[in-house]
Design a protein that fits this description.
This is DUF5667 domain-containing protein. Keywords: Coiled coil, Signal. Helices cover 94% and strands 0% of the residues. It contains three helices and no strands. The longest helix is centred in the N-terminal third of the chain and has 112 residues.
């Protein structure tokens, strides 16, 4: 009887052991699979976060670059407007100098007709005309300097490049002042001749009046 019972227990144990072993193997496999899945999910999340950060970084960089470019463009626009105003003013000043030069030339011709010595005045006027041409070239140089300028994409580069334009503006301004001063010298040199011309005209008028009397 005992032998039969022992045999039965042994048989049951032998039948259960494979099932337990199979269950343990299955549990171990499931645990490994789950571990692998969790690891994959973590890696996927890390990659997603990394990509999002990179995208955000590029967006910020683009935004900063766009803001910087807009700021530079605004400065360039202001510089262009400033330069155009300067050129307009300087060209108007040069036109006035040329008009004055023409009047002085006409006065010299009248003096020569009255046999008044205007040699010095003519020489000074020739010098003044050269200085007027120099001023015209310098003023034209403002526009060409601006047109040839590569402003760049930052406010720092724009401001640095503007110094070249500013230098050209100062040169043109100085040349205009020199041309004006040269014309003043011509006028001053002609004053004695002007007095003679006026005296001559006055004498001529007086003589004509006496003849009519």
């Amino acid at each position: 009887m005992k032998n039969k019972l022992l045999l039965s227990v042994t048989t049951i144990i032998l039948c259960v052991l494979p099932v337990i072993s199979l269950a343990e193997t299955s549990t171990s496999t499931d645990h490994q699979n789950r571990k692998t899945t969790i690891k994959d999910e973590v890696e996927a999340k890390k990659e997603t976060i990394k990509q999002n950060l990179q995208t955000k970084k590029e967006e910020i960089k683009d935004s900063v670059e766009k803001t910087r470019q807009n700021a530079a463009n605004k400065i360039v626009d202001r510089i262009n407007q400033f330069v155009q105003n300067i050129i307009t003013r300087y060209e108007a000043a040069i036109n006035r100098l040329e008009t004055l030069s023409a009047r002085i030339d006409s006065r010299i011709t009248k003096m020569e007709d009255k046999n008044i010595d205007v040699t010095i005045g003519k020489d000074l006027l020739a010098t003044a005309k050269i200085k007027i041409e120099t001023a015209k070239i310098s003023t034209a140089g403002i526009a060409s300097t601006t047109d040839n300028m590569i402003f760049g994409t930052t406010t720092v580069i724009v401001k640095e490049n503007f110094q070249a334009i500013k230098s050209q503006i100062e040169k043109a301004k100085e040349d205009i002042k020199n041309a004006h001063a040269a014309l003043v010298d011509v006028v001053n040199s002609l004053k004695p001749g002007d007095n003679k011309l006026r005296n001559s005209s006055a004498s001529s008028t007086a003589t004509t009046s006496k003849e009519h009397d």
